[in-house]
Design goal:
Blueprint: E1 2-7, E2 10-14, E3 19-23, E4 32-42, E5 45-48, E6 57-67, E7 71-77, E8 82-88, E9 91-101
Antiparallel strand pairs: 1-2, 1-4, 3-9, 4-5, 4-6, 6-9, 7-8
């Protein structure tokens, strides 16, 4: 059994006991979070919601919150002597999927 969940403007295909990295959630470590189910795949077939599947939910546990690797960005304007370097670290939340309920 698998589920397609939606969080942070993205969709993820998850199964039981899977660990995923999602956009930062407002939850503490070891907290339980619930996700909206867009589609549900079982042995009988696929059940697609409009927009979400009624009565289905995915529960996960927050393992940690952190920042990804730094991405370096450089900009410059030719013949003007203008240049700068920027860096960005995208925040994430590491979640372990505990249960998929249909």
């Amino acid at each position: 059994m698998y589920a397609i969940i939606e969080t942070g403007g993205k969709q993820y295909k998850v199964t039981n006991d899977e660990v995923i990295f999602v956009e930062k959630l407002a939850a503490e470590d070891n907290a339980t979070v619930t996700f909206n189910v867009v589609a549900l795949g079982t042995d009988d077939g696929i059940k697609v919601g409009t927009p979400y599947v009624d009565g289905a939910k995915v529960t996960g546990e927050v393992l940690k919150t952190g920042k990804g690797k730094k991405i370096r960005v450089a900009t410059y304007k030719p013949k003007k002597g203008e240049k700068r370097a920027l860096g960005h670290r995208q925040p994430y939340t590491k979640v372990q999927i505990k249960s998929i309920e249909a």
